[in-house]
Amino acid sequence: MDTLQILIDFFTGYGYQAVFIVLLLCGFGLPIPEDITLVAGGIISGLGYTNVHIMFVVGMAGVLLGDGAMFMLGHKLGKRVLKIRAVSRILTPARFRSVQRQFTRYGPWVLFVARFLPGLRSPIFITAGMTRRVPYWRFLILDGLAAFISVPLWVYMGYLGAANRTLLMTWIHRGQVGVLALAAVVIAVAVILVRRARRRRAVKQVKG
How many CB atoms lie within 10 A of CB 176? Predict the structure, then answer.
């Protein structure tokens, strides 16, 4: 049985609470695709078990709380967080150095892009908290903006395609490609903005 069907069966029995808990655990690194989890939540709404608008709110809450918990874990514990076995598995020394380089290159926009990068979200959010380069309020704004794109996309896609699984799978594939394309565009824009900001600072320093 595929992951989507397993989640649908589980969510059908336990509703909003099950969707919220799974999304929260996804934020902690549970190896279940977040997009498929949100789609499954939308499907049970499409089948009449829950209300799709409430499901959207539940999805946002689960996503943001899970992400926020990872950020605060790094912020509160600092490098001590790496002593936690579960964290050390997803945030290896090499990955930690790589994420730091991305922050240096792209700035806080890395947090926005991270929402669209499965497998890298948790390491990036933990690192952001550890380095304390980004205040929590800015993290919430950037992550929230990204979530307002991804969460409704997957929830309402599941809702609209609940009765036609074949068509739904086509939508999911196209949606995943579209999300990755959006992330690429955001990265490109971030690079341009960061470079312009650096040039302006360099010009001011020369004139000063």
Answer: 16
State how far the Cα of 43 lies from the Cα of 2, in Å rounded to an integer: 15
What are the tens digits of pLDDT across the range 82-112?
Answer: 888 878 887 888 888 888 887 777 777 788 8
Tokens found for residue 45: 């709404």
pTM of the complete model: 0.80
DSSP 102-168: HHHHHTTHHHHHHTT-TTTHHHHHHHHHHHT-S-HHHHHHHHHHHHHHHHHHHHHHHHHTTT-HHHH
Rounded to an integer, what distance in angstroms lies between the CA atom of residue 128 and that of residue 109?
11
Buried/exposed code over 89-115 (b: 16+ C-beta within 10 A; e: otherwise): ebbeeebbeebeebbeebbbbbbbbbb
Task: Of 58, 62, 4, give the one whose Cα is nearest residue 33.
Answer: 4
Question: pLDDT tens digits, residue range 141-199?
Answer: 989 988 998 899 899 999 988 888 778 878 777 777 776 677 677 667 766 776 777 77
